[in-house]
Design brief:
Layout (H helix, E strand, L loop, with lengths): L3 H11 L21 E4 L3 H14 L3 E4 L3 H20 L5 H9 L1 E4 L10 E4 L5 H14 L5 E4 L6 H6 L14 E6 L9 E5 L5 H9 L1
Parallel strand pairs: 1-2, 1-4, 2-3, 4-5, 5-6
Antiparallel strand pairs: 6-7
Helix pairs in contact: 2-3, 3-4
InterPro entries: 3-OHacyl-CoA_DH_NAD-bd, NAD(P)-bd_dom_sf
Organism: Cryomyces antarcticus
Protein name: 3-hydroxyacyl-CoA dehydrogenase NAD binding domain-containing protein
Length: about 210
């Protein structure tokens, strides 16, 4: 096992171009996120959506192709919020406000007005690349396209957003925001970039 320092040193030697110090270069470089989209109503997706609605205070639309999964996820959200109220971590009005920021849909078209979207579906490469190809067409041209993966190449996922390898308008907005499980409890978020990821995308992801 390598220590953190040893891993950092090794990465600098083996792949210096990939080594970046992830800090926001300027608060002004980070775009404001007014609405979030989350793809996947499972434990990870629901956790991300709930934390964003509660902590960031932004409206969140949860998209899943199964209404049953959405219904199950929303019941879980209600359970977590009720638990926080019972333990006096938040007030009932705070819980109601958080719940009110969560909406759901079985259509990807519901992501047409988001500023940031996080995909949290199973670790199936073809599924993820298919989703990101759709996101590049559906989401606004400024939207950050994030994945929750930590095992699939972000460069590969980013490449699926454009058929023209010279057009980086969509690939440059792809990044990984890898949340730890369970999201409402774990504070860590791992930021992973692809070769195409722009600095403004990194800045916005870190600030959000």
């Amino acid at each position: 096992m390598f220590s953190a320092v040893a891993r950092s040193s090794l990465l600098r030697q083996v792949c210096p171009a990939a080594y970046r110090h992830f800090s926001s270069s300027s608060p002004l470089a980070a775009a404001e996120v007014k609405k979030l989209g989350v793809i996947g109503a499972g434990q990870m997706g629901l956790g991300i959506a709930l934390v964003a609605a509660q902590r960031a205070g932004v409206p969140v639309v949860i998209v899943d192709n199964s209404q049953a999964s959405i219904d199950k996820g929303m019941k879980f959200a209600d359970k977590l919020l009720a638990k926080d109220v019972s333990k006096e971590r938040i007030s009932q009005s705070d819980a109601d406000a958080t719940r009110g920021r969560l909406s759901q849909s079985t259509s990807m078209d519901a992501l047409s007005d988001v500023d940031f979207v996080i995909e949290a579906v199973p670790e199936i490469p073809d599924l993820k690349t298919k989703i990101f190809a759709q996101l590049a067409q559906i989401c606004p041209s400024h939207a950050i396209l994030a994945t929750n993966t930590s095992s699939i190449s972000i460069t590969r996922i980013a490449a699926s957003t454009s058929k023209d390898p010279t057009d980086l308008s969509a690939p440059s907005r792809v990044i990984s925001t890898h949340f730890m499980n369970p999201v409402p409890v774990q504070k860590g978020v791992e930021i992973i970039t692809g070769l195409q990821t722009s600095q403004s995308t990194i800045d916005t992801a870190i600030e959000f």
